[in-house]
UniProtKB/TrEMBL annotation:
It comes from the Bacteria. InterPro entries: TM_pro_TauE-like, TSUP. The keyword Membrane applies. Coiled coil: none annotated. PANTHER family: MEMBRANE TRANSPORTER PROTEIN, TRANSMEMBRANE PROTEIN YFCA. This is Probable membrane transporter protein. It is a multi-pass membrane protein.
Amino acid sequence: MEQGVQLAAIIGLAAAVFVGASTQRISGMGFALVSSPFLVMVLGPHEGVMLVNLLGACSSLLIFAQVFRQVEYRKVAFMLIPAMLMTIPGAWVANSLDGPWLNIGISFMVILALCSSFMIRNLAMAQSRGLAIGAGAVSGFMSVTAGVSGPAIAGYAVASRWPQAQFAISVQLYFLVLSLTSLIAKGGMPQLHWQQWGACFGAMVLGIVLGNFLAPRIPQKFSRAFVVLIAFSGAVSLMASGLLALSSN
């Protein structure tokens, strides 16, 4: 019975990572939002979030290695530098504030930012460096406090009309560095059995292979809509988890 439970957990981990990695390759983001609920459920919040950060970094690295010549490095830098800096106060806030209220507050800000991105995309400020810096700062703060960094960047991509193909490629460098920074800020590595490690990394490679096949075959407007849907889903799931935690207290 125990072996069956362990096998089911390994299959579940592999399935979550497979779907997350393929989503990441197709749309440019979504690994954490897709895979983290199950990883946290199986491994617990501490190990689960650390595994999400580690595998997210590895997934982005594998994709980045294929497309690094097409990355818009300058644009990424304006988001990445403030994001890395904001992991420091973010770690302090995560350790100081109550988790449920923090999740609710962050999810509200993400939903507001995504809605605002559709309203300002025709304004001059949508193309400004200030918006890129602000989006990076919010994303870095969220990466440490809630384990979700993508929604703020998705909002910036919509507002600035960043072409989906270039966004999906360039953002891999952003997620790679930010995931490693968040993992370092947490000060640890996930502890898994070798079978779990093998299943996770095997599923990641297969997911990216599937994503490589599907990405050029999916129209950009559908990929961009998927990115926004993932971002909203992440915000709603964060708010739901915060409300459930409050109701259980």
